[in-house]
Amino acid sequence: MTFTKSAKAIQTPIYLGNIVLDVYRMPDGSYKLYAESVTRVVDKEGRDLLNFLNGKSLQALPFKDYNLVHAERVEVEGRGGFIKPIPVKLATSYWLYRAIKGNIKAQALAQACMIESIERRADKAFSIKRSETEYNQRFGELWEEIVSENQWEIQARRLPGDDLYLPMGIN
């Protein structure tokens, strides 16, 4: 794949199963993600990413000098506007943090990504060719399965009186 340097970022959606992420190819050839799509994946508001960056978790530590509010704005080709995209490493650290904190969707996302990463490499090692559609379908099935298993496990821990004073997702 050849890369021609552009003064603007190029946007395209990518899919993790049915999950849509806005990805940008930056003028330097790196990839970044749209912060709101990163938080939306795990049912959080954009402000949650700021809270993460201001937190003291091990996952946020490498980003202590990253200021999302004052991040460089980049013009997007064909969109006529500017964005403040975030590095992929920041997005994955945020998801890992949310997974550790018990967010079921973040846990499923992390596990499904790890499974897909290993399966793609195994497919390559065994010269198995699959389409992107097949990988996305498999990812979506894995993600749904993991979310369902995690929700069932939480519901199994609930006691009869928990419905009266504890919201779903907490035992």
Word description of this protein:
With 171 residues, the chain is an alpha+beta fold. The protein has six helices and six strands, in the order E-E-E-H-H-E-E-E-H-H-H-H. The strands form two sheets. A four-stranded antiparallel β-sheet has the order 1-2-3-6. Strands 4-5 form a two-stranded antiparallel ribbon. A hairpin with a 5-residue loop joins strand 2 and strand 3. Helix 4 runs antiparallel to helix 5 (132-157). The radius of gyration is 19 Å and the shape is globular. The mean pLDDT is 86.
| Arithmetic mean of pLDDT | 86
The amount of beta strand, in percent, is: 5-15%
Global outline = globular
Query: What count of helical segments does DSSP give?
Result: 6
Parts with pLDDT < 50 across at least 5 consecutive residues = none
User: Structural class of the secondary elements?
Assistant: alpha+beta
Largest β sheet strand count, sense and barrel closure: 4 strands, antiparallel
Could you estimate the helical fraction of the residues in percent? 40-55%
